[in-house]
Prior knowledge:
The structure is a single chain. This protein has 9 helices and 19 strands. It is α/β, with parallel strands linked by helices. It is elongated and about 65 Å long. Keywords: Flavoprotein, Oxidoreductase. This is NAD(P)/FAD-dependent oxidoreductase. It catalyses: [thioredoxin]-dithiol + NADP(+) = [thioredoxin]-disulfide + NADPH + H(+).
Amino acid sequence: MPVRSDSSVRVKSRRVRNARSREPTASSSPATSMGSAIRASVFAVSARIVASLRHAAQSEHMTDNDIHDAIIVGGGSTGLSAALQLARLRFRVLVLDSDAPRNRFAAHMHGVLGRDHTSPLALLADGRRELSRYDVEVRQDAASTASRDDELFTVTTDSGAALRARAVLVATGASDTLPDVPGVTERWGRGVHHCPFCDGWENRGKRIGVLAESAESFHQIRMLRRLSDRVTVLSHGPTPFDESQLAHFAAAGIALDDRVLDRVLTTDEGIRGAAFDDDGEIALDALFVSPRATPRDDILVALSAERVEAFGRTWAGVDAMGRTSVPGLWAAGNVVNPMLGVAASIAAGATAGYGMVAELLMA
């Protein structure tokens, strides 16, 4: 109803009303003030309870939608093989991949039934396509660290994502430290190799050099001698072999050269030999070396998996299935055994997948 200017009803401005409402009145007794304080306190507690219930509901929603059954760290042949076994049993699987497989330098892989002399990168691409049939997500994001609490793992990635899972498989492989001889790194996988099973047959009958700085190369040399009668051991200084091993070389017609290497002589496609520090040279078609493998196991270290001595250094210890000392944590492939080739790595991943399925069903 409109109010006339001469009405007995006066309309005060909002500022005046608010100011007066904050002023003490004759009826504002101590008891009234205490009651107001109690009501405010009850309201605050109620608000906190409501917020807590809302957060619990959100957490429950996260459990249903954002917790994976398994996170697989590493999308190489081991990790993809394990993911396949888990996915076929309808477990929710996430694969994190840094896109740096150990064998990415090689144009071909060998000794893999059905895939012999094909690209290792093509194998991984086919594996990812196969996993898409089961709605497995393969995410290009490296895991940086991990923790475990309340039976769940949290894997933090380089992009900042914090991912939760009931089980974790580490299949991050290993990295190779090559001999410090110029030309070795440049032709790694193209004329410079380490595995007779992987690249020996392709160099059968050719001039093969073996850079052998320790007696551990003895077995490698014996395998290569089966492939060629033109094998030369390059000790890059004083020989590390004992008299019985030297006698074996002599009987097998294996040459030994203890001059210090200066560099590998390279071509556009491979190598043509090696040069020594005395300006001498040797003609070679292939050079085999023994790199030092280092496990890419930061996640296993972060989760305090027990270590064992193997291959001249410490590695995470696992049982025959790939189970570590930490409940729910698994490891397989080159991250725990640098000697495994592609075929064996696929098998190790499948074996770990079988074990993870059994453990998840029992949880």
